[in-house]
Design a protein that fits this description.
The structure holds two protein chains of two kinds. By secondary structure, chain A is α/β, with parallel strands linked by helices. Chain A is 41% helix and 27% strand.
């Protein structure tokens, strides 16, 4: 349905996209994931015929975005970063206008306006001036605009930005519903966003695809270096920090101390190191008040994907021995329970 | 169809914002004053001097009406909607041009009271120059709007658009001055390019096909440039 071949885009001398190759099948929801400035918006703008590529081709529904731009635009709904709404129009007159320029006749227009107003929960706001709506509602009007002509392909640039948690859930389920007869590309810089609605993720960084996989695989990759948020009350005069730093590849991040209760993030290069660490610290009388596995964040995914293989492998071998030496039944039990917690989340 | 959609939207938004009302009141106030003043001073039942001076007021007023046409779409990013919809830049420009022209004609229609006032006091009032004068004003308006539409496409800043438009229109107005200074072919060329020399012909009751063609071609050239400029966003 969507095909990108060697797509490259330069803004003057700045390379925004470099040799992007990508295929999206019909009915698929693809998440474009990347930090700000990674090239997500650029890729979407090229697909929606708003800007041209410097080289390479992009095809939507078999039509080239440059050669047959009008045909592509007939089949495509696009929600840009800023919802393209006219502040002085009412929701309904705006959708009426968009329906007209998207070539819907009067009958279809009336029908589609009712459908999108209903699906986006805008029925009660149909007569309101868009300028008086909150950001979340404007975003919905922007989505309504993209869906009004029931296009085969939907391109949504950060569709849930500015929405409150309830609205985010609604919009995500809306996008999932759409997938049956639409192809959707959405961009985001929030990993959970992708896991909630997409089948497949493409991660781009500095204009290049660094990973292309299913959501679960990507998350697993990121978890190779597991982290925990820990609140620890050490035993008196216990040198707990030494215990941790003795483990190779361990990291203590953002340590804060209040009344001898420490709050920090622990990162280990091997998940199993936690067992030994736990038993060692608790055996001296310390109390763990909180052990919370941290889910992979986008940053982790990036560090993981961009780091070289050498740095990944080194610590693992040395740490395995240590676990065998020191693990106890108690700590094993604890570790399993945190593992379960991780999976539930 | 799509052109009409753009036109209607544009025309409506003129009246949602205060711009149209302000321009209308200022224009009518000034033209009303001119009409009264010229009539008192000359004691002559002619509309020619009023309409001649009104054209200069229109030169100042039209860029204010045209400045937002594309600039605002760029500023508010609504241009992304237009350019990613199955509508061509030519249709966008045409729709906007027609909306502004319609507004301009409404503005002119409000000044029809003045010839009516004169006609009611002078039984053998000559309507000929008035009709040709209004035709001239409409053609002049087409020229003004097309320049304004082009400059509005240049920048997302409305003020920049308006000032560029003033500059271009004033220049074309002043080309007419050249005939008094330059008595050669170059002076002749400049005079031919002058919008106001040609407009003055209409006020004298002369409908010259050459003048009509000049205004039509002038308008189409600027509209064409505006279209290309808008299109160029897509391939630049």
């Amino acid at each position: 349905m969507i095909e990108l071949n060697n797509l490259t885009k330069y803004y003057d001398n700045f390379r925004a996209l470099n040799n992007i190759n990508l295929k999206v099948e019909k009915g698929e929801i693809l998440g474009l994931l990347g930090p700000n400035g990674a090239g997500k918006t650029t890729a979407m703008r090229i697909l929606s015929c708003f800007i041209p590529a410097t080289s390479g081709t992009a095809k939507v529904a078999g039509f080239d975005v440059f050669e047959d731009s009008i045909e592509v635009r007939r089949r495509l709904g696009y929600l840009p970063e800023t919802p393209p709404v006219y502040m002085d129009m009412t929701v309904e007159s705006y959708l009426e206008f968009v329906g007209k320029i998207k070539e819907l006749n009067k009958k279809e227009r009336e029908k589609r306006i009712e459908i999108v107003l209903d699906r986006l929960g805008l029925v009660n706001n149909r007569d309101r001036i868009i300028g008086t709506l909150s950001k979340g509602y404007r975003q919905r009007v922007g989505l309504a605009q993209a869906m009004i002509h029931n296009p085969e392909v939907l391109i949504l640039d950060e569709p849930t930005v500015g929405l409150d948690p309830n609205q985010i859930i609604e919009i995500r389920s809306l996008i999932k519903d759409l997938a049956n007869d639409h192809t959707v590309i959405l961009s985001t810089h929030i990993l959970s966003e992708v896991s909630a609605s997409c089948n497949r993720v493409v991660i781009i960084n500095e204009g290049e695809i660094v990973a292309e996989d299913t959501v679960t695989n990507i998350e697993n990759k990121a978890l190779e270096k597991p982290s925990w948020h820990i609140i620890l009350k050490p035993a008196e005069k216990q040198d707990w920090k030494q215990v941790i730093t003795n483990i190779e590849g361990s990291e203590l991040i953002a340590v804060s101390n209040q009344d001898n209760v420490y709050d920090f993030t622990l990162r280990l290069s091997n998940k199993d190191d936690f067992d030994s660490l736990f038993s060692k610290i608790t055996s001296e009388g310390a109390i763990f008040r909180c052990i919370e596995p941290i889910k992979a964040s986008l940053e982790d995914v990036f560090t993981k994907l961009t780091s070289t293989d050498e740095t990944k492998e080194k610590p693992v071998s040395t740490d395995e021995n240590k676990i065998k030496e020191t693990s106890t039944d108690e700590s094993k039990g604890k570790q399993t329970s945190t593992d379960e917690g991780k999976e539930e989340k | 169809m799509k052109i009409l959609a753009i036109m209607r939207k544009e025309l409506e938004s003129y009246f949602y914002s205060p711009v149209a009302y302000i321009v209308f009141s200022a224009f009518l106030l000034i033209v009303g004053y001119l009409f009264w003043f010229i009539l008192i001073a000359s004691k002559y039942a002619s509309l020619e001097p009023t309409l001649y001076n009104a054209a200069f007021v229109l030169l100042l007023a039209t860029p204010v009406l045209t400045m937002r046409l594309i600039s605002e779409e760029k500023k508010n990013k609504t241009i992304e909607l237009l350019l990613t919809s199955p509508i061509s830049p030519a249709e966008i420009i045409a729709g906007k041009f027609l909306a502004c022209l319609l507004l301009y004609i409404m503005l002119l229609a409000l000044t029809l009271q003045y010839p009516l006032v004169i006609a009611s006091y002078s039984p053998n009032f000559d309507w000929g120059p008035v009709i040709s004068g209004y035709l001239g004003m409409i053609l002049l308006g087409c020229a003004f709007i097309s320049v304004g539409l082009f400059t509005s496409t240049l920048s997302e800043n409305q003020i920049v658009s308006a000032i560029t438009s003033f500059g271009i229109l004033l220049l074309f107005w002043m080309f007419g001055f050249a005939k008094d200074v330059l008595d050669n072919a170059f002076g002749q060329i400049l005079e031919n390019l002058s919008l106001f020399e040609r407009y003055a012909d209409f006020l004298r009751g002369i409908i010259d096909t050459g003048n009509i063609i000049f205004f039509v071609v002038f308008t189409l050239i600027w509209l064409f440039m505006a279209t290309r400029l808008l299109e160029s966003d897509r391939w630049r």
